From TrEMBL, chains A, B, C, D:
Official protein name in the record: Chorismate synthase
Originating organism: Pedobacter helvus
Family: Belongs to the chorismate synthase family.
The reaction(s) this protein catalyses: 5-O-(1-carboxyvinyl)-3-phosphoshikimate = chorismate + phosphate
Pfam families linked to this entry: Chorismate_synt (PF01264)
Length: 366, 366, 366, 366
């Protein structure tokens, strides 16, 4: 119940601190017989790793993943797949300043309050470094989904007040190519340039900025999700909200949809001209592919909001462990904006949720 | 894994269909010795029950709750508390029209796809009637929280495009009195009147409209929530997204916060003039009382967005179970806007999450 | 975590006290489309119900079960099946004697120690009355198993030092007829008579006696059970040990097998003359149908030991709640020997374990 | 649900195959602030490791454990403790013989049936090598229990038909010294010699033999265990039955107790002369320290039966993967009798169960 496990049938447990020996994950419940493509897993990690561009943190980690168990002759065996990612570039001495001083909007204080002890080096367990383990496991989930014809695509659709157009109706392979062609991971090239320039300016100010990531899932069959508490969008929401810095989640019509009337919001089903691919077709998709918590076969769409990174290169007022007024200046190596690296984390968590519900749905009927 | 259970240590399992014999809940894990105030539980159900005003559904249910187990001489015994709410006013014949026709933006189609069988009467398990069971259990959670000095308050802050001012810094008893003084459950009287008038017009149009509910939790000690997947706001988000019609969740600065810079968004801690009550004090509260997934002792704030109810009194295009074009006209008794009745559901789910994490936190340290 | 739930995918949660309003169960995870035969469920409860013969307790309960949810037109819908069994013959006044005095070998003291409060009437939650809820849910599990060709049979194989011959290789329908032809539920008529006479004598002495129940499961396919912690026999063991009064569990060769050499104990596989029915065939079956925690397709066999009932009609030394020496005399209505009524509880728990692993195994491979 | 996780609040997840790169464990839920004595953990592993005497397998593994996360400056931090044990002496070529042939009484066949793929090297995941990970985690559980005054002691009480006297009333430190003074780990020196001589003879015959391990837990407070499904002895039983080769579990009076009358079996409580240490005192302890599934403060006692190891150095009849008759000769390096090495596994699993229930009990009352 200490909450380092996610998923029911396709289940991951992660471990590791920012400046410890390694981080890693056990993936339990992957069906046997799935080809495990290590290169693909590594390529996913490469999209999240630090130091990949001028607009990400300069911490250098190769994030080389090693599979310790659960595969045999290149395939999953049904036993736990453990994966290890050693930490290489820990500059723990950079963090001497936060031993006794609570960094504003960081988790330092609450760890002390909760545990009475705190690994202050790089934020310890509260660091987003933990998400590398999720990306590794999420890559295996993607392989399972791809085997079942399900594809996931996310990209950056907002940085600060700069918004990208909605592209979710496009072809995933093309969107992916467009996205990976720029360092901010927005599939619209013009907006991407604007975003990059803005982030670079923010970085030079020693400041940070928030943003949004949008995600679309294509090829999901109808029937995934459980009807009451474990609604598909509720599990997606929890997954996204568990990512560091996320402050909001909406799916389908989202918060905007709350302003509409039912007569505007309802999606009218129409006869499906082709039984292939989709078994359900509606004119609009305000439902975001989910009705009553269960996928309906249409595209699943959702959006995730990330607050600005808390570490800035400015002097800030704060308190120390004794509760006295103190001052702190940003140190360490951090991102001016997390969304470019968060794209693959969003996809990984979505993949984990879908894979889990794919397995859970096997017991729905006789 | 069929997902009718919520919570880990303070755990509920609900059952029942809209037009079955009864709905109910087992609450397992309530600590022994808690006085169980049946009148309070009933009063919470009364706030959710149908037929309470002109802007709610006209279905008549007394929603009288009976406790079947788990209490002795007025106190919890540590064994499961089962509660039963009989269904009284099932007009199942009203639902003959959706046996073979899929209502737009309802779960009819996905239940058929998932289960191959569907209790079509009133939406069966997909009906929001299930939430009465949550409110009953949530009332017990509130009693436990109150014992620990934690209070929860939610109210309607938007109906369509009508927005209420932010009142979360106020006194909960006063806000509650203001909220319960009007039928839309908005604590700002002027906005409440505007909302009521608007909903009544929408109802006369045979239409529906969405809205938002905002919630604040006061008196929560620092340390609740688990740091990785079971972050306090991730569990709150899942809880809210599991409520019928919810399409979005945000906490603290929410989606608006994603547009800010770190230097604007960071909450600076300041020395706490009074050790009483709060152990942590920040000038602003963009964090919404939660850092790194763990409560910091400040007010916890979040907002929930509800789409418009799908049942409208208009003719709508749809398909039947054979996949052919069909037409459907709204029947049955439904709400023109769910938020007035959803307020107590939001509070109940929040209470369940907090109670669970209160118990989970007991094992954080030696 | 209060432990009133059993199973993962086919999951039950029970509630209710011996002398409360009702006991009951929510069964979550039953696949949709299963015909739910209420008469069969009731007939299973009738085998467990009190007052059925001179060698069982004289408490009179019809144990009439009502299904509250989860079925539609006679079939399961995939939503939770709630079942309720009202308590009818509570003579709570019989239990005034144990309000402040701890009955020897009963749970009175530990409930006070654990909870600080105790529903003393009839033992409250610690009463074996709770097992009626298990039998109701187990009956549904049996229906699911029967649909998949799996049959379960248990009978009494020991009362005190009287032992029955091993009959597990027989035909289940015939064994069942033999078992139900006598009130002690032993399929060997001669031993049954001896057991009945013995129990009746013990009863007249105001005393009680223990016994054993043996169980065989036929038609189970290979592959059920998970290889490490959730071995099929480990889950069967936990299920049996969770039944009131059980002090021991063994499967296959059991404790006797520990005295053998490997060369005697190993079961040699032989070519299977008929592919029908069984895919694996060994000359002996010391494995009890389970290898490495996973069913191998042979008969699954295990044995359960029940201690004598603690309530006797003798004067006994004990202590009171103040820790002082006290005396207690047996009152209330109790069984001189539980095994005749426990047979169907053993079968129910075995059915729940098998049904759970049947569903879990659906995710083993692609 | 693939079952590689054990425990609820104090929870382990293990991974790794016999001849893979490493085995390991994530321990989640250890309270923060516990001193983690790595030397103690290693010393526990040394008691389980292969090659330690002439009566154990000759596979050579140092079983050196490395802690990857979850500790800081020698103490637990409340985050997951990951431990890694590299495999060093994998002679996978020894296992070429079981690629296509099913070894009698091994799990080869069922893995193929369940997963359709099998890591045949050394039995893969079905090997008892996995238990090293349990011992590492169990050592941490022991440290937590010792902090709360709870001690666990197990020793070998039967090898084949050679039985040791009951010593459980003794002092644990003295029993431990006696046990560790001989290679069979029986605390009675005379019986130990007899057992060693017998096992050595069995080994020379190329054969194997089963045995029993008895365990006593001292200092456990009253109140641990949950009253219905998660009875303390039910969880102990499952834990023991999940250990490789275990075929039986009994606690307190066990199977022998089933032959007694209630008047013989009941344990009469007596006033406790000293409030110190034990809060409950009975003349006899047929209950094995557990009433109604909850610890009563007396010594907790149980016994575990291990079947003989399946690998023998004899020619054996079997079948191959095509279902045809085949012959196999034992190869590989195996134990003639597992109980000497199993003693510390039994203790580890008992410690994990107790630690889990210690944390769970924190929520029993207000």
């Amino acid at each position: 119940m200490a909450g380092n496990t996610f998923g029911q049938l396709f289940r991951i447990s992660t471990f590791g601190e920012s400046h410890g020996i390694a981080i890693g994950v056990i993936l339990d419940g992957c069906p046997a017989g799935l080809p495990i493509d290590l290169d693909f897993i590594q390529s996913e990690l490469d999209k999240r790793k630090p130091g990949q561009s001028k607009i990400t943190t300069q911490r250098k980690e190769s994030d080389t993943v090693q599979i310790l168990s659960g595969t045999f002759e290149g395939k999953s065996t049904g036993t736990p797949i453990a994966m290890l990612i050693p930490n290489e570039d820990q500059r723990s001495k950079d963090y001497g300043h936060n031993v006794d001083v609570y960094r504003p909007s960081h988790a330092d204080y609450v760890y002390d309050a909760k545990y009475g002890i705190r690994d202050h080096r790089g934020g310890g367990r509260s660091s987003a470094r933990e998400t590398a383990a999720r990306v590794a496991a999420g890559a295996v989930a993607k392989l399972l989904l791809k085997h079942h014809g399900i594809d996931i695509f996310a990209h950056v659709t907002a940085v600060g007040k700069i918004n990208a157009p909605n592209l979710e109706s496009g072809n995933i392979a093309e969107l992916l190519a467009l996205r990976e062609a720029n360092i901010v991971r927005c599939a619209d090239p013009a907006t991407a340039n604007e975003m990059i320039e803005f982030i670079d300016g923010v970085r030079k100010d020693g400041d940070t900025v928030g943003g949004k990531v949008s995600c679309v899932i294509k090829g999901c069959p109808a029937g995934l999700g459980e009807p009451v508490f474990d609604k598909l969008h509720a599990d997606l929401g929890k997954a996204m909200l568990s990512i560091n810095a996320v402050h909001g989640f909406e799916y389908g019509s989202g918060f905007e949809g709350t302003e509409l009337r039912g007569s505007e919001h309802n999606d009218s089903p129409i006869p499906n001209p082709s039984a292939k691919g989709q078994s359900f077709l509606t004119i609009t998709n305000h439902a975001g592919g989910i009705l009553g918590g269960i996928s309906n076969g249409m595209d699943i769409t959702f959006k995730v909001g990330f607050k600005p990174v808390a570490t800035i290169m400015h002097n800030q007022q704060t308190i120390n462990a004794a509760g006295e007024a103190s001052e702190i200046k940003g140190k360490g190596r951090h991102d001016p904006c997390v969304v470019p690296r968060a794209v693959v984390i969003v996809e990984a968590m979505a993949a984990l949720v879908l894979a889990d519900h794919l397995l859970r749905n096997k017991s729905s009927k006789l």
